[in-house]
Write a structure and sequence with these properties.
Layout (H helix, E strand, L loop, with lengths): L1 E4 L2 E7 L11 E5 L1 H22 L4 E5 L5 E4 L1 H7 L3 H4 L4 H4 L5 H12 L4 E8 L5 E13 L2 E11 L1 H19 L3 E6 L10 E4 L2 H6 L3 H4 L14 H12 L4 E8 L5 E11 L9 E8 L1 H60 L5 H28 L2 H5 L2 H16 L2 E6 L9 H22 L3 E8 L3 E8 L13 H12 L3 E6 L5 E8 L5
């Protein structure tokens, strides 16, 4: 029996047999310290068990040959095998053959009393591969190694993220575009701080990444940076909306460059995460230079084309004048002389008189043809009376010759008599437009409207023909010629059509560019 006397615990033991004198032997032992030690051992055993069984990592014990002896529940989850099956396995059989040498060396180090860690791939029961960080810890009993504890942590996701981060970092460092990530506040000066910038920034601007961290992107701005573009960027950032702009920024040495910048918001991750802005910047200075050269070349070509068109119109005017004045007058004189000859010779036979009169009629027809050719080359009224009179004459002739119902509508003021280069361009555009109607539209009616203000001249040609699909159809040289004439004079061209809906062409020319 046990009895407590004061704060001590005693065990009382009575002998089974009495002494010869009839007395009994009684043993009294103080077991207070023993009981305390036993309780501490039991508690430590429970703590050890908790550390083993409740550990969030896979923990197992192995004998001196490396066979699994005991494991916790996480080991089963990690490998996919139940405990009863794992107890029949040697740990190395779970390790990928490529990593078994490292596992064997680490196990031997643990057997010599040295904790060791290694990385390995383990094949799970379902066939998937897990990347583990395994630590071997020697089990010491009275200074002797009696086994090995193995602690395995699943690092598959971490290694995947590390590899993704490594690849991303390598990519970021090699691309020529600049990638900057900033905080979202403050938008007012000094501006949001830069928290990340790739190495491409040094190639583009001369700033090293460490110089920019903690600074703001305003460091790239300068006197020629477009303030309107900055205001648009500010409004987009306030609304947390993506935006793309092109503006002038400055290198560290003060040299300006054209920068195409695209900014997108990065939303916060969860309730505790932070939001950011990510910007991709691209140096498009060379592109801008080439665009400027291309525009300059196009402008030179347009000026050359404009000069050629002017020379062509001068030549047409000269040929038309020569036809009208020289050949026309010669034919007229020939007609008069023939008429005088017919009237002055009485002894002409009826047959000869009829032939001469037929010749006079032919000369008369030739005179009309010369006048028509001259007018088609360059109608004199275009220079004398302006565009409207020439257009009305052209449309009347066109309607008679092609059997079209042509309607002319003029909405300009009485004083509107457009002349010069614009008048010539509009007249040629009208000619080309009517040619397209005759050749392609199969229209029966054409309406031509014209209005002239102090600033612009607007010509519209509308037909009721078969039309075309603006997307599918390749525009012919007629529309290209019209477009080029309009572009040379800084005007605007609108072409609207659909299958079965006819065609509408509208030309707007500014009047201030010409005399």
């Amino acid at each position: 029996m046990e009895a407590r006397i004061g704060d001590r615990l005693y065990r009382l033991t009575l002998a089974r047999f009495h002494c010869p004198d009839g007395s009994s032997l009684v043993q009294l032992a103080d077991i207070t310290d023993y009981r305390h030690l036993s309780e501490r051992i039991a508690i430590n055993e429970q703590r050890f068990r908790s550390l083993f069984s409740q550990n969030p990592f896979a923990v197992c014990s192995m004998d001196l040959q490396g066979r699994l002896v005991e494991m916790n529940h996480c080991t089963e989850e990690l490998t996919g095998y139940p405990e009863r099956q794992l107890c029949d396995y040697h740990w190395e059989t779970l390790v990928d053959p490529r990593d078994r040498q490292a596992a064997r060396e680490c196990f031997e180090a643990a057997l010599s009393g040295i904790p060791c860690s290694y990385r390995c791939r383990v094949k799970r029961s379902g066939g998937q591969t897990a990347l583990l960080q395994v630590t071997y810890i020697p089990i010491l009993v009275e200074g002797e190694v009696t086994g090995v504890f193995g602690v395995a942590r699943d690092k598959t996701e971490r290694y995947r993220l590390e590899e993704s981060r490594r690849l991303l970092q390598a990519c970021m460092s090699q691309i020529h575009d600049v990638i900057i990530i900033t905080e979202v506040d403050p938008l007012d000066p000094p501006g949001p701080r830069i928290v990340y910038v790739n190495e491409g920034v040094e190639r583009m601007t001369g700033y090293r990444p460490e110089e920019l961290l903690g600074n703001t992107p305003r460091i790239f701005q300068g006197p020629d940076t477009d303030r309107a573009a900055l205001r648009r960027i500010r409004r987009a950032l306030e609304m947390h909306e993506p935006i793309k702009e092109v503006l002038v920024n400055y290198c560290k040495n003060g040299v300006p460059f054209w920068n195409e910048i695209e900014i997108v918001p990065i939303p916060r991750s969860g309730t505790e995460g932070r939001a950011y802005f990510a910007a991709v910047q691209r140096d498009i200075t060379e592109t801008k230079r080439r665009e400027a050269e291309l525009r300059h070349s196009q402008e030179e070509l347009r000026q050359l084309s404009r000069a050629q068109e002017g020379l062509l119109e001068q030549e047409r005017r000269r040929i038309a004048r020569d036809l009208h004045d020289e050949l026309g007058q010669t034919l007229t004189a020939l007609k008069l002389n023939l008429a005088v000859a017919v009237d002055g010779i009485d002894e002409l036979s009826a047959e000869h008189r009829r032939r001469l009169e037929s010749t006079i009629d032919s000369v008369d027809d030739a005179v009309e043809k010369v006048r028509e050719i001259s007018a088609n080359l360059r109608p004199p009224m275009l220079d004398d009376l302006g565009f409207e009179a020439a257009a009305e004459w052209l449309l009347s002739k066109w309607g008679e010759r092609n059997g079209l119902d042509v309607e002319w509508r003029s909405e300009s003021t009485e004083s509107g008599r457009l002349g010069g280069e614009q008048a010539t361009a509009l007249y040629r555009i009208l000619q080309e437009g009517m040619t397209n109607v005759s050749r392609h539209s199969r229209a029966s009616r054409v309406t031509v409207s014209y209005r002239e203000t102090e600033e612009r001249a607007v010509l519209e040609i509308r037909d009721n023909g078969v039309g075309f699909d603006p997307v599918a159809r390749h525009h012919g040289s007629g529309l290209l010629g019209i477009r080029e004439r309009v572009t040379m004079l800084g005007g605007e061209l609108t072409v609207e059509s659909a299958l079965g809906k006819g065609v509408r062409i509208q030309v707007e020319l500014p009047l201030a560019t010409g005399e």
